[in-house]
Amino acid sequence: MKTEPIHRTSMWKFKLSAATMTLIPAAVGINYVAKALAEGLKLPVWLGSLGTFLASMLAGPVAGAISGFINNVIYGLTLSPISTVYAITSIGIGIAVGILHANGWFSSARRVFISAIIIAIVSAVISTPLNVIFWGGQTGIAWGDSLFAVMVANHAPVWLASFTDEFVLDILDKVCVAYLAFFIYRQLPQRMVHFFRDDK
């Protein structure tokens, strides 16, 4: 299924319709299960934004941002309190995905890769101050934090080391999630895709 750009003025329209009220909990559930699975298997990625990507692609950046925010709050209250801190990051991811998708940046495998890099930058820029404030600059992922430790040991500024730690992890995570979302979206029935577009 070809991914068609959405009219720029319509991508910001948000209506709490039956379709959206069904999509957001589904997206939150996908985020929750994917993140729990990644943590349980100790994967070097988070995967907790897959539902956010899909919600943004189907219903726009506002729906994606809401899905990501709710998931971080619920996940933080149930499994990992750390997650709540990054609710603002999920909002940024949802908005970035929605804008990129509306402008045709999920229309081909090559464009998806570029989109993933942009989203990773957005995520890292938002997350880095949070990492520094709450965790001394680290992310909690062992190999990323090893890079952070090496940079700090070599007298790199904490902010730069923290951003590098976060960015290398975000690149891997967002590329994985972006392609998963891209392939899932392309398999969805066109009737479903147009249902959310017509609902705006």
TrEMBL record:
It comes from the Bacteria. Coiled coil: none annotated. Signal peptide: none annotated. The chain crosses the membrane at residues 45-66, 73-100, 112-134, 141-161, 167-185. The keyword Protein transport does not apply. Keywords: Membrane, Transmembrane, Transmembrane helix. This is ECF transporter S component. It comes from Lentilactobacillus buchneri subsp. silagei CD034. The lineage of its organism: Bacteria, Bacillati, Bacillota, Bacilli, Lactobacillales.
